[in-house]
Please model this.
Amino acid sequence: VSRSILSVAISRPAWQVGPFRVEGPDEDPFTMGVEVLRRLGGSVRTAGASELHRVHLVGPFPPEADWGFAEALGLPGLEIRRHPTGPSGLWGALAAAAHDAGGPGREAVVVADSAGPRENAAWGASLKWGAAAAAFLLGGERGLAVLRHGFRGHAPGRGPSMRAQILAWLDALSLPPTGGRGEILLAGDEEAGRWLPVWEEVAPGVSVASAGSDPPGLGPAPSVRPAFLLWDLFGRLRTGETGMIVEVGRGRSGFAGFRLEGAVRWVGDWTEPGTGIRPAGDRFLERAATASAVSQGAYVPHPRYLENLPSRWRLVADRCPACEGTTFPQRGFCRHCGASENLAAQLLPSESLEVEAVTTIGSGAQPTEFDPQVAATGPYDVALVSLAPGLRATLQVADAPPGQLQVGDRVDTILRRLYPMEGEWRYGLKAVPRAGIAESSAEPPAGSSRAVATTRPSPSRSRSPSSRSAATSRRASSRRSASRGRRRRRAA
Ligand SMILES: [Zn+2]
Model:
């Protein structure tokens, strides 16, 4: 059994606080994870050999995620595995998805971080990092192969000699220090600078580069930042080359190896996310609502909530064979002729839905279960959207200031927190303005000639209308920084 990384998607919340993108009060790692899996596209929903059969979670996912991913994706047999937060969790999850026996289908690794509050400060006084989610799809085709990884802890200042450690890492990936097809990306804290000269002395044949600053809009988020390291390493590799991400820090060190064997799709904005929506009020980050809060709003019994999830989360309708009518939401009988036999589940479209009417709910006019949300983000819109001829849904609008959405606009649906009830979060679909998702189908250049590295990068590195040029400029810029690293080494 061996699967490679075939595509990787990134998704960030729409809200902006200080330098970071931050999840809204109706988002959490579960909703961000569902969204980023959706961005991988139809590849995760197809039946047969490409059907997703296992999802590995890295990050602070709520308990609802254990059953929620299967329900949200409509894959009842989906297995969920949880891994520790942070880089070791991500490398371990990728290795498990690549090498563990399982079904014949594909596996995904979903990694997410919530925004991190600074210690000894009230929520929102300041943040250490922002929020984001990334999803890796692994399958049997050739892509980015997952090699060995490992971590070790040691007392501060009493680690193994840097020279011995570097030789051990190279040996783990069968990279000869005297030369070979390899690129090393060195990531770490303030100690990283001390390692560079040792690398240059011990392994003059491999290219070593320092990881750049933390990803814009995200900062040092513990679990998603390593995904950006992999994006950075990918940009340095040519087909057939082995790369390693090495992390050194106080008290621990680790490595993760990869080999580029085929194309990898990178979906979403891996470069500059742009500026998000700045919340109007100071209470955005207070997060007063918790799952244990008692909602004063409309009571939906738990069994009925679970029973209606296919309609609530995936827009599943019933198609009646007797009269050919469609019933949505599902009721167990046909609303046209009353038949209850042989109803067939039918998936209604969930993207690019036309807005037929839109209403702004002003502060105080909302149902009480939405009080905490209004306190955080203010008034909101509710849209009546057309799902199919004669079938409509009323959806709360998310990620848009009230009044922005107009009749005739197109919206996508997205799973979000609604309100807490009976000790857990209830989730449902909301509407978000339809926006294009950047995609770079990055085909690594064939051959080993490094002369291509001089390709001039395009002036725009982000939000490029042509998905390919974003990938090209990214690769070119990575090559340039890598060659700068080599020049530095020769000068030393
Ligand atoms: Zn009927």
